[in-house]
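Input record (Table S2, row 268):
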Amino acid sequence: MDHQPLRGQRALVTGANSGIGEGVARALGAAGAAVVVNFVSKPDAAAKIADEIKANGMDALAIRADVSKEAEVEAMFAEMERAWGGIDILVNNAGLQRDAPVTTMTIEQWNTVLGVNLTGTFLCSRAAARSMIQRGLRPEISRAAGKIICISSVHEVIPWAGHVNYAASKGGLGMFMKSLAQELAPHRIRVNSIAPGAIMTPINRDAWDTPEALGKLLRLIPYGRIGLPEDIGKVVAFLASDDADYIHGQTIYVDGGMTLYPEFAHGG
Ligand code: BGC
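Output record (beta-D-glucopyranose complex):
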């Protein structure tokens, strides 16, 4: 098995300075890709991850951009284009939560979540698709002209009370990804999503940082452990590689069985 299946490829991971994005950036670097580590805050964390990828022999760049802002996204892709001449792999990972009961949810909470999780994915995918189409196939590098991978969530299909903005953004991502996959297939651009379950990152700290919270969370995970960023990183590296060349328009759930309706193991 080829241990560096992404050799010669250029990747951009949004929100890559912590959590799942960090795990994905590291996994793509380990698989041989040059990686843009996008961030919006905590530049030191992004620089450290880029430095560590470089120390392992791959090229890396930390680039700041708020993915919900069109001009910032365009500037980031222009910088990547200048540095490396194009993009082969886009991972739309940047995402956040602003939780509230619907009756008190503010328009800011709604817009922030939809802006980053959904509009950000549109803006980055548009920029990547333009570049991939312009450059076309490079068969010596990959069987696809480009790969776009969205980091969705189990809440693409599991309703989530108290989180209508987040669940709506991930549900929307499902149809965005499939429609984009249909549209870009003739250009040989592969588009897929990975839907993580509960992964131990800052976004859900409240759900795992006390034994009580963790115990409650584990009741929702049949496989009996919380996920780690590397669980997602490894699947992204596979999905971006030619080993996954015939996977197109799919959401792959990486969730320890969270989508198996675990309550029904002992009920119904
Ligand atoms: C959310 C986490 C949550 C997980 C499982 C993710 O998409 O961001 O906060 O723990 O889904 O419910």
